[in-house]
């Protein structure tokens, strides 16, 4: 990570005239999508020579995708928070989704959460339009030659494998859906090198399908770290929204644009500071994609 900071990222940041938000959008594609630019740097104690200490990073697949996401959100009014929580524990590589489920339950009013365990694609699609947030703790994959057929691994009516595809999402009117959190989507079930960037590709696909804000992982996330980061993310996001609403902020949509990326950034920083082993591999996979 220090090499990446020295030869590439530091030089870029030195040339930027950053605004007070410290937001930077990294435009990546292909193998560049596997490089954790947001985690580049020196992480020895007290060092600030790293991306995390310098800027709040967002990723986007193209300028066109960023412009589309911003345009799609214009005129959108803030609405009551409703969470769709989708889990497929024990399907494929074993996932421990208990940390994330507990974190969400402790952050939100249980009455605002719709929890679907091992749902079918049809069940998820029927619920998405009426929920502001969608949290997916399940496996995902992308197909390099046919991205629209990639998606999330769910179950069919008989309990076998079924896929909620990007094509399905593109055909669905998402309604209130604004934030997608792809917590456990990973590359664990494939050994094909040409699909190394599948996780971030899947997150990009969710963004272009209509979710303005997407949290994803570049590779397998530690289950405990995933829970703590999710807890911090939602806690910060909802606290900021509540403060804006109480203040009668008429620019709530702008706050949402800045808030999601900042919430993930601060949550990862918090987890990083609490990890006594200073294991960068437990937090460097979390990425934010969107406006």
What does this structure look like?
This protein has 291 residues and is an alpha/beta fold. It folds into two domains: 2-73, no CATH class; 83-290, Rossmann fold, CATH 3.40.50. The protein has nine helices and eleven strands. The strands form three sheets. A six-stranded mixed β-sheet has the order 4-3-5-9-10-11, with helices on both faces. Strands 6-7-8 form a three-stranded antiparallel β-sheet. It has a two-stranded parallel ribbon with strand order 1-2. Helix 8 packs antiparallel against helix 9. The two termini are 26 Å apart. Residues 187-198 and 250-256 have low confidence and may be disordered. This is CHAT domain-containing protein. InterPro entries: CHAT_dom (IPR024983). It comes from Diplodia seriata. Residues 2-290 form the CHAT domain.
Strand content: 15-25%
Q: Find the structural class using helix and strand composition.
A: alpha/beta
Termini Cα gap: 26 Å
Number of strands: 11
Spatial extent as radius of gyration: 18 Å
Note the total helix count: 9
Biggest pleated sheet: 6 strands, mixed
What's the helix-strand series? HEHEHEHEHEEEEHEHEHHE
- Proportion of helical residues: 25-40%
- Find the CATH topology of the largest domain: Rossmann fold
Number of domains: 2
Identify the CATH class of the largest domain: Alpha Beta
Mean pLDDT, all residues: 82
